[in-house]
Amino acid sequence: MSREGFKSGFVSIIGRPNVGKSTLLNQVLGQKIAIMSDKPQTTRNKIQGVYTTNEEQIIFIDTPGIHKPKHKLGDFMTRIAQETLNEVDMILFLINAEEGYGRGDQFIIDRLQNVKSPIFLVINKIDKVHPDDLLPIIEQYREKLEFAEIVPISAINGNNVTTLMDQIKNYLEEGPQYYPEDQVTDHPERFVVSELIREKVLHSTREEVPHSVAVVIDQMKQRDDGNIVDIQATIVVERSSQKGILIGKQGGMLKKIGSLARQDIEHLLGSKVYLELWVKVQKDWRNRAFNLKDLGFSDDTY
For labelling, which of 24, 240, 243, 262 has a CA lying 20 to 30 Å from the CA of 1? Predict the structure, then answer.
């Protein structure tokens, strides 16, 4: 659908792992569609968030953090992030003000050198540093790449996010409305539900588990009376020890994960949810191409 004067565009959010890309996307949209965790490399697929007003529609792509891959899953995640760079109208290069410049940033900057689209430097977590520390950070990055705009923000608190949005809108060109005005993501509900469960796993378990977990929705069905959605899901891990941690003493950990996830899923679906979780061991799934495909992370290149 297209109408005169309406603007639209695709914006990719990139950056090192754990700089706050998903937090920014959720802040802009006003609701959670992207997984948030203090553990890096938690985003595995491109998540499109759709922001719509009467004047414009902006489709945000929250990519996996670009990093040097250590296994097939990492290779897939990095390739997805890099592929978006030439498919979008604008790029937000998000950095962490608290950490400053690092080799991981140079890895990304090298991949931005030939990009034709406007690139914004978005300095996140400014609430964690003194304002006087911002100028040296800006100068350091400005020497390495030409940025269309430089915008300091705090995604978690929402500081200056409105200013960032105004700057993005200035660069939009006239275009169609790609999605209905009430749609906030192009992912099916099953995908978002699986991500919400995986987020609770990350929040609730020790370091041994997070990067070795995937969530598969086995069944998601609304009851005939329409009051409850029944969801059955399997949490996939690589080792039996991880399965033990996830289940916990007398099933306590799995109950906790299920309870926390159910609250978010009910908010997402606007309905009561009956959630059943299982844990399954699939050894070394991150390095097995056929497992990645089964779990939704791969494509025909494997």
Answer: 24
Taking the alpha carbons of 232, 238, 242, 243 in that order, is the dihedral positive or negative?
positive
- Write the DSSP string, 173-230: EE----S-TT--BSS-HHHHHHHHHHHHHHHHS-TTSGGG-EEEEEEEEE-TTSSEEE
More confident residue, 217 or 128: 128
Tokens of 203: 């929040």
| Residue pair 297/282 in contact by the 8 Å Cβ criterion | no
For the record, the structure tokens of 156 come out as 């978690």
Task: Indicate if 288 and 194 belong to the same structural domain.
Answer: yes
- Judge if pTM exceeds 0.70: no
Does an H or E element contain 29, and which? helix 21-29
3-class secondary-structure state, position 149:
strand
Q: Write the pLDDT tens digit of every residue in 135-151.
A: 999 999 999 999 999 99
Let me know if residue 179 belongs to a domain.
no
Strand order in the sheet with 214-222: 214-222, 228-237, 272-281
What distance in Å separates the CA atoms of residue 294 and residue 299, rounded to the nearest whole number? 10
